[in-house]
Amino acid sequence: MTRKTLTALLLGSSMLASAGAASAQDKTLTIESWRNDDLSIWQEKLIPAFEAKNPGIKVVFSPSAPTEYNAALNAKLDAGSAGDLITCRPFDASLELYNKGHLADLTALPGMENFSSVAKSAWQTDDGAATFCVPMASVIHGFIYNADAFAQLGIAVPATEDEFFAALDKIKADGTYIPLAMGTKDLWEAATMGYQNIGPNYWKGEEGRLALIKGTQKLTDADWVAPYTTLARWKDYLGDGFEAQSYPDSQNLFTLGRAAIYPAGSWEISGFNAQAQFKMGAFPPPVKAAGDTCYISDHTDIAIGMNAKSPNADAAKTFLSWVASPEFATIYANALPGFFSLSSTPVQMEDPLAQEFVSWRGKCQSTIRSTYQILSRGTPNLENETWVKSANVINGTETPDAASAELQKGLDSWYKPAQ
User: Fold this and answer.
1) With 349 labelled, which of 167, 226, 241, 334 sits at a CA distance of 20 to 30 A?
2) 209 and 77 housed in the same domain
3) CA–CA separation, 29 vs 57, rounded Å?
4) pLDDT, position 21
């Protein structure tokens, strides 16, 4: 073998060794999720944006069917075969994973300072000492309205309850449109888009919600009964046979242009944009009197954490810090209008209806649904019971006082707050 040949072989071996070393440094992260409808967004937008800035880290989005996710994830975690990154449901399901040692403590993760205490509350220990998932998105409650109908009838967007009911009266008197598109058949609609939508203006958002958890307020207090008193008035403005009207029925009534106002969650935006043939607008829950502080249900929905046993912890933390960044927030929120970034950094929304919803964060106080943290861990389940009572109050089969008393009685039967 000539010296020239030997040199070439050694050079080639050196280059192969270098390439092998570079390849060995690449880390591949796998994301577990129930959002299989998001697959294209991750593959086409989110992952390429991250990998472009982090060439040594590859990311694979590997979702399960939503109904199978919890069971499948738990089985993988127990077997030690779960991915590096775990998409987190809000509150108790994720808290249980953390308590079992499956999710890592991310309290000190760079980027976590970009989220408020409300934004993090769904993925923290009860005492708030540890945060184990990076908040990704929330949904906001309010009202979506047919702007063409409002213009036709000369109705201004209501800011107070008196203005809201005056608008409903005007719509009802005209007769062209059903004033409110909502039914009570499916129960959850009455609670989620009814009671939890307008309620925070009465119980002062987080102040009341946390007082309920502490036991210093009760569901029989005036600020918790009053939203039911207001909801009872909605009955006169719902469509004929609203008691048998399902959630899809309500959606169709509005998008077909037969109803003027839809008590809403922002998750409706994409579907309504595709189906409605009229201009839409949105307004937050009306306050009791002009000048009152407004509160919105800005409900924490989805987050992402790290498998405590991930062999790629450093790379996973790099990814999670990127999820906590304004860049991720902007891409995600615009790819899924109506699922809003929980980052404290404002995100400019391209969709005008989504931008209207998210703008309320700048003028109203945010809170989450009152039944979701701690208060629905026992039997009877306060969340499910609130569905039933909200529907009963709107139907007129139960008074606000009686409904509130029954809810508090059920809560008292198992929940003993540590004051």
Assistant:
1) 167
2) no
3) 7
4) 38
